[in-house]
Design a protein that fits this description.
Shape of chain B: globular
Distance between the termini of chain A: 36 Å
Number of domains of chain A: 2
CATH architecture of the largest domain in chain A: 3-Layer(aba) Sandwich
Number of helices of chain A: 11
Distance between the termini of chain B: 27 Å
Helix content of chain B: over 70%
Oligomer: heterodimer
Low-confidence stretches of chain A: 309-316
Order of helices and strands of chain B: HHHHHHHHHHHHH
Structural class of chain B: mainly alpha
Number of strands of chain B: 0
Largest sheet of chain B: none
CATH class of the largest domain in chain A: Alpha Beta
Largest interface: A-B, 34 and 27 residues
Radius of gyration of chain B: 20 Å
Radius of gyration of chain A: 25 Å
């Protein structure tokens, strides 16, 4: 449904993105993840026909974003970063304008506007001026406007940025409703959010895609060690020494300023939990907690994002 | 076409919602009213004097003495007001980022441009229609030459349209509305006074600067003369600046 083929964009001498290639299938919800300035918005702007790439090709539903721009734009609902809206219009007027501009037939406009107002819960504010709305409502107006004319592809640039936790949950719920009949590409730099909503994650850093997979696969791929968190009662420093001697244990670390908590990193091919428990009890300590810890998406993200420059340096 | 009307309606909505329009309309109408009053009062005075002198009375001409100065005065006020009507058209869209919406809707850049220009022309027509009560007064008090009145309004509308096309262009070169207004005002003033150069420069250049002076083409309209050369001048002027604006707007895309 969405196809990016070797997309490159230069702003003057600076490359915002280099050779970005990925695909999103029909009906997928894909998260586009990366630190600020990684090139997420640039990629999205190319996909939405806001600007042409310096090199490469972007296609939506088989149509080229540059050659068949108008037809592509009819298929896309786009929520730009920071949600630019006409601040002097009321919500209803703005949505009516956007519906007309997006090619909704005149007789359908009222019906279509009513539909997105209902979906996004804007009934209460539809007569208010956009400039007077809270950030959360503005964001919802942005999403509502993207939904007009029922586009098959939704491209949402940071849909939850700047919202309070309750509003984030609301937007997330809304996106989950929408996944049923839209292909969605959304960007974010908040990881748990992407892990919850998306089936697949594209991680971009310094203008290049560094990983793309499901959150679960990314975790298993990048997990070089299995980690076990341990909490004991009593002095743990001796225990740490003993654990280090154990076969299959690679590292044992303390949490700073707290030697009751230990983090044991082991060979991922073996499960050492029972042996560790035994070892604790043999030393006469009380075992309070023992659990295996999965690498979080945050860890993966940091790993990918921090590894990358190091690799580049070694290459050059 | 659908997109054109949507943008057109949005522009009108935004214009009528903004206080700028009301401030401009208020000032424009007060000053135009003052000019009309002073021209009429002067005509009145001359008429009294003429009542003792039949030779002079024959030469009294309301088109020549009231309508013509009135239209010339309107054109001066328009020169001051037009930049204020056009300054926000593109500058505001870029500043607030809403350009990104227009660029990703299925509307061509040309349709957007024409919708914006059409909307601001409509506003001009609304402003000009505000001066109609003066003409109505004339209808009750005297017998103006209706053909000359029509020609004058047509001229003012074309002249105003040219001002607005130029203003639309300056609005597209900057994100700052004030700068757009200043550039537009400066350029309009240049086109106004460029004719003054004709006595200084050589004969060929003199013809050129005289031709370029926007007001010279207006004078014949104000007199009630419809000359195709003047129509051509205004149409070319408008098309030229709309073309420049379109190129400028298209360049936002590849400049990012």
């Amino acid at each position: 449904m969405i196809e990016a083929q070797g997309l490159t964009k230069y702003y003057g001498p600076v490359a915002a993105i280099r050779d970005v290639t990925f695909q999103v299938e029909r009906g997928e919800v894909v998260g586009f993840l990366g630190p600020n300035g990684a090139g997420k918005s640039t990629t999205m702007r190319i996909l939405t026909c806001y600007m042409p790439p310096t090199a490469g090709q972007a296609k939506i539903d088989g149509l080229d974003c540059f050659e068949q721009s108008l037809r592509v734009r009819q298929k896309i609902g786009y929520l730009p970063e920071n949600v630019p809206l006409y601040a002097d219009m009321t919500v209803a007027h703005f949505l009516r304008f956007a519906a007309g501009a997006k090619g909704v037939a005149r007789k359908q406009i009222d019906h279509e506007v009513q539909r997105v107002v209902d979906v996004c819960g804007l009934e209460k504010v539809s007569r208010r001026i956009i400039g007077h709305l809270s950030k959360g409502y503005r964001q919802r107006v942005g999403v509502a406007h993207a939904l007009l004319n029922n586009p098959s592809v939704l491209i949402l640039d940071e849909p939850t940025i700047g919202l309070d936790p309750a509003q984030i949950i609301e937007i997330r719920r809304l996106i989950q409703q929408l996944r049923e009949d839209h292909t969605i590409l959304l960007s974010s730099h908040i990881l748990p959010e992407v892990a919850q909503i998306c089936q697949r994650v594209l991680i971009i850093n310094n203008g290049q895609i560094v990983a793309t997979d499901t959150p679960a696969n990314l975790i298993s791929q990048l997990q070089k060690t299995a980690r076990i968190a341990l909490q004991v009662q009593g002095p743990a420093s001796e225990l740490a020494e003993a654990l280090k001697q154990m076969d299959g244990v690679q590292r044992v670390s303390h949490e700073a300023g707290n030697n009751h908590h230990l983090m044991v990193e082991t060979d991922p091919s073996r499960d050492l939990r029972a042996e560790i428990a035994r070892c604790v009890l043999q030393r006469g300590l009380d075992l309070l907690e023992l659990k295996s810890v999965d690498l979080s998406l945050e860890d993966i993200f940091l790993q990918l994002v921090t590894e990358d420059p190091a690799q580049e340096e070694s290459e050059s | 076409m659908n997109g054109f009307w949507s943008v057109y309606r949005k522009e009108l909505y935004s214009s009528f919602a903004s206080p700028i329009f009301y401030a401009v309309a208020f000032t424009f109408l007060v000053i135009c009213g003052y000019f009309f009053y002073s021209a009429m009062a002067y005509f009145n005075l001359i008429s009294f004097q003429a009542s003792q002198d039949p030779m002079m009375a024959d030469q009294l001409n309301i088109t020549e003495m009231v309508m013509r100065p009135f239209f010339l005065d309107i054109s001066i006020v328009l020169l001051l007001m037009a930049p204020l009507l056009t300054m926000r058209l593109y500058a505001e869209e870029r500043k607030s980022g809403t350009m990104e919406l227009l660029f990703t809707y299925p509307i061509t850049d040309r349709a957007t441009l024409l919708a914006k220009f059409g909307a601001v022309l409509t506003i001009l027509a609304v402003l000009l229609s505000g001066t109609l009560p003066s003409i109505l007064l004339l209808y009750f008090l005297a017998s103006p030459n209706w053909a000359a009145v029509f020609s004058g309004y047509l001229g003012v509308f074309l002249l105003g349209g040219s001002f607005l096309a130029l203003g639309l262009f300056t609005s597209s070169v900057t994100q700052n509305q004030i700068i757009a207004a200043i550039l537009s005002f400066g350029a309009l003033l240049m086109f106004w006074i460029i004719g003054w150069l004709k006595s200084i420069v050589g004969p060929t250049a003199a013809q050129l600067v005289e031709y370029l002076a926007v007001t010279r083409h207006f004078e014949s309209f104000a007199k009630g003369v419809l000359d195709s050369r003047d129509f051509v001048f205004y149409f070319v002027f408008i098309l030229f600046f709309l073309f420049l604006t379109l190129r400028q707007v298209e360049s936002y895309r590849w400049r990012g």
